[in-house]
Design goal:
This protein is an alpha/beta fold. It has 11 helices and 12 strands. The strands form 2 sheets. Strands 2-1-3-12-11-4-5-10-8-9 form a 10-stranded mixed sheet, with helices on both faces. A two-stranded antiparallel sheet has the order 6-7. The longest helix has 17 residues, at about 290-310. Bound molecules: nicotinamide-adenine-dinucleotide (NAD) and (1R,2S)-1-hydroxybutane-1,2,4-tricarboxylic acid (48Y).
């Protein structure tokens, strides 16, 4: 039996391109890995009537960690459809969505950025409870003390292990003192147990401005689900864009790693997707398994190829997914 088993889920669109690329990179590490393939996404839903079959959940639970490509969610209501990644986050209680943004040697990346956005991954507006009364539509935002406390604890422990030891609690308690106030106050109370971490609160709109003006001043950020969703695309944009930004959906028992980007229907099937975000998510997966040296080796190889080329189109180059992946593999070996 291999040392680690890894579940691979391609999903939709460019998921079919970036997961095989990341698999080749993982195979090139020489680690003793066994891969198990599973299905999820909109294409699977159209064929089988469900977006995440139970067999996929079982494979995610039975393997050591999962690498997910991307999945499509249509912007209209489709009867019986559940967004694949959103369903998996809640079903597997993957409560922490960890989204690092680090400077890369690519055009448009700020220098000296090294931050991690921790997004609460199970509630907020993502409980997806919407209803319509005539011309009025209402969505619930659920915030619980339990989920706020555990995401706060996760972010504080993460900040404690880092050099700067700073935690920005992102909120909108000035307008929503009951829901956002519960999130903010619960985390600020928890922070009293971490006196070595400098915890401070920032209102989300101001946080967006500060992130663009002075991203190097941030260390760890924690936010409710939708604010974290929006700000993590912003932080991806600070350091080279969606082609580069990785993430991990982490629970107490299971973990699913995935790029921040989606299925990119505008470029899917053309062989031009940048696999970096998925490869860096694979590096996070290796860290999760305790393979820290190999994780650093992957990250260093990514930055070396980003610096020297070839680069993919989203970063101003002309390389396709294959050519970029080949260069990465040469660099690892
Ligand atoms: N975690 C997920 O599975 C996830 C995340 C985001 C969006 N989505 C879904 O994906 C679909 C498309 O959403 P979208 O277009 O708003 O976002 P997207 O992230 O798929 O694409 C946004 C833009 O970034 C580009 N891009 C993204 N990844 C790239 C890569 N690896 N290399 C090069 N360019 C890349 C795309 O070509 C596009 O122009 C939607 O159905 C959405 O619901 C899923
Ligand atoms: O396409 C979906 O079903 C979800 C997209 C997803 C989200 O959390 O909203 C994506 O934007 C992300 O940041 O992971």
């Amino acid at each position: 039996m291999a040392k680690y088993t890894i579940c691979l889920i391609e999903g939709d669109g460019i998921g079919h391109e970036v997961i095989p690329a990341a698999r080749r990179v993982l195979e090139a590490t020489g680690l003793d890995l066994e891969f198990v393939e599973a299905h999820a996404g909109y294409e699977y839903f159209l064929e089988h009537g469900e977006s995440v079959p139970e067999a996929t959940i079982e494979k995610v639970m039975a393997t050591d960690a999962t690498l997910f490509g991307a999945a499509t969610s249509p912007s209209k209501k489709v009867e019986g459809f559940k967004g694949a990644i959103r369903y998996m986050r809640r079903r597997l209680d993957l409560f922490a969505n960890v989204r690092p943004a680090k400077s890369h040697p690519v055009p448009g990346s700020y220098e000296n950025v090294d931050l991690i956005l921790v997004r609460e991954n199970t509630e907020g507006l993502y409980v997806e409870q919407e209803r319509r009364y005539g011309d009025t539509a209402i969505a619930d935002a659920v915030i619980t003390k339990r989920a706020s406390q555990r995401i706060g604890e996760y972010a504080l422990k993460l900040a404690q292990r880092r050099e700067k030891k700073k935690l920005a609690v992102i909120h909108k308690a000035n307008v929503l003192p009951v829901t956002q106030g519960l999130f903010l106050n619960t985390i600020m109370d928890e922070a009293k147990n971490y006196p070595d971490v400098q915890s401070y609160d920032v209102i989300v709109d101001a946080a967006a401005m500060h992130l663009v003006r002075n991203p190097a001043s941030f260390d760890v950020l924690v936010a409710t689900n939708l604010f974290g969703d929006i700000l993590s695309d912003l932080t991806a944009g600070l350091v080279g864009g969606l082609g580069i930004a990785p993430s991990g959906n982490i629970g107490l028992e299971h973990a699913v790693f995935e790029s921040v980007h989606g299925s990119a229907p505008d470029i899917a099937g053309q062989g031009v997707a940048n696999p970096t975000a998925t490869v860096l998510s694979a590096a996070m997966l290796l860290d999760h398994l305790g393979e820290h040296d190999m994780a650093r080796k992957l990250e260093n190889a990514v930055d070396q190829v980003l610096l020297e080329g070839p680069r993919t189109r989203d970063l101003g180059g002309t390389a396709g997914t294959q050519e970029f992946t080949d260069a990465l593999i040469r660099c690892i070996k």
